[in-house]
Specification:
Elements: H1 2-7, H2 17-35, H3 40-48, H4 51-74, H5 81-92, H6 98-105, H7 110-142, H8 158-182, H9 184-212, H10 214-217, H11 222-246, H12 251-262, H13 266-273, H14 286-311
Length: about 325
């Protein structure tokens, strides 16, 4: 397995900045759809009784990278240093915006999901570089020092991150809440069609990603990337659910923490990997790129899968 993964270190993957822009625009529309089902008073309750918020932040900021490091150690004989560093990078990224839509589809606590996404995005410029440095250093110093080249200092533009959060999260959220307040009948009629559009969009996004890298996905070597991401994603989703159960959070919050922990902003990870000022072009980081890119696709598949499963089951309080 290790030998097969090493082959991927020098194989490029198609990544289009134009496609990322299109995805961000549609995500803003998806967020507007999510906002149509939000109850502002729930935010007040969340911050008066912030147990679920603290649990979610702990799961994302501490438990997720720690569990990832444990998985990397356990799989040490079978994975390459670049694949391991790719897993650590994904774990260091904040939660993804698509988790809000999936929480809504799952009948979970949408307000908690939005709160965790917003807080995670705001602290990401500080927390993501710190977690990547901390757990990456542990890996390089105590597990495999041949990965030292991948341990770069991450630079995340706070202003750009704030602008992205405002455009993808804040503005659609505000517009959605105002629509419900002043045009409730219109909001009710709009909610279902936009929800169907969102589902269709995510399915199309997966198909396009497969099509752009079809030769890679049919390559026998890629099965090992699939297995790694499957193990990683399943483990951290399970940890989010287990932590919520252990803390005896409400059933809706348990669903939210499962999704929030398992859906990462791997698009940010890709943007960092393709930044020549951070990762030099001559550095063979194909393993990191392939892990991060497949995470971006696979989390949509698993997220929609668990969302459909929960959408057909009533929430037991």
């Amino acid at each position: 397995m290790r030998e097969q993964l090493q082959i991927l270190d020098n194989i490029p993957i198609n990544f289009s900045t134009e496609a990322t822009l299109s995805v961000n625009i549609v995500l803003a529309v998806v967020m507007y759809c999510v906002a149509l089902g939000i109850r502002p008073q729930t935010f007040i309750k969340l911050f008066i009784f912030p147990k679920s918020i603290f649990a979610g932040l702990f799961a994302q900021a501490i438990a997720l990278p720690a569990i990832t490091f444990l998985i990397v150690i356990l799989l040490g004989k079978w994975i390459t240093p670049m694949a391991a560093m790719g897993m650590i990078l994904v774990a260091a990224c904040p939660g993804g915006n698509i988790s809000n839509f999936m929480s809504q589809l799952s009948k979970a606590n949408i307000e908690l999901s939005v709160s965790l996404t917003a807080i995670g995005t705001v602290i990401a410029p500080f927390l993501t570089p710190f977690n990547f440095w901390l757990w990456g250093s542990f890996y390089v110093n105590y597990v495999n020092n041949s990965a030292g080249g991948a341990l770069q200092t991450l630079h995340i533009d706070y202003v750009q991150m704030f602008q992205t959060a405002l455009l993808l999260l804040g503005l659609p959220l505000l517009l959605g809440i105002l629509t419900v307040k002043y045009f409730p009948k219109f909001a009710q009629k709009l909610r279902k069609p936009l929800q169907y559009f969102s589902i269709l969009f995510f399915i199309v996004m997966v198909i396009v990603a497969f099509n752009n890298n079809f030769d890679l996905f049919v390559n026998r070597t890629f099965i090992y990337i699939f297995i790694l991401v499957l193990i990683h994603n399943s483990s951290i989703m399970g940890s989010g659910f287990g932590l919520a159960k252990l803390l005896k959070l409400p059933a809706k919050d348990q669903r939210t923490l499962t999704i929030e922990t398992g859906i990462q902003n791997s698009g940010l990870g890709l943007a960092l990997l393709f930044n020549p000022n951070i990762f030099p072009p001559d550095l063979a980081i194909g393993g990191m790129i392939h892990i991060t890119a497949w995470w971006w696709i696979w989390q949509i598949v698993t997220g929609l899968g668990i969302s459909f499963f929960w959408s057909r089951r009533a929430v037991r309080e």
